[in-house]
Design brief:
The structure is a single chain. By secondary structure, this protein is mostly helical. It has helices spanning 11-26, 30-45, 52-72, 78-105. Helix 2 packs antiparallel against helix 3.
């Protein structure tokens, strides 16, 4: 539904996919969750209009998926995947915090 919206709200689809994927993770339905979470993040990643914290939530849900999947099925590479998504989350959070700091200090503001 949101894919066809002309007002730039297509990112809402990605957010909805991430929320559903997170719910499936909680139910232990990891394969289904993975499809939705990866698709949701892909839908959000390139949407500049999507709020940054929504993208961070999607990354957090992906890292949580692989952490829980590793706990259920250790030794299958899920811990490494969780670490990769956590690293992306850390990079995204640092970037957003730097932007917030620049706004608060007035750095990068037009003169």
């Amino acid at each position: 539904i949101y894919e066809a919206r002309p007002d730039g709200a297509a990112w809402l689809r990605g957010d909805a996919q991430s929320a559903l994927g997170a719910a499936l993770t909680g139910q232990g339905r990891f394969t289904e969750a993975e499809t939705l979470l990866v698709g949701g993040f892909d839908a959000l990643r390139d949407q500049s209009i999507a709020p940054p914290w929504i993208k961070e939530d999607a990354l957090l849900a992906l890292s949580a998926l692989y952490e829980q999947w590793d706990a259920a099925e250790p030794g299958k590479g899920y811990a490494e995947m969780a670490a990769q998504w956590r690293e992306k989350l850390d990079e995204t959070s640092k970037s957003r915090n730097a932007e917030i700091g620049n706004v608060q200090t007035g750095e990068g503001a037009p003169q």
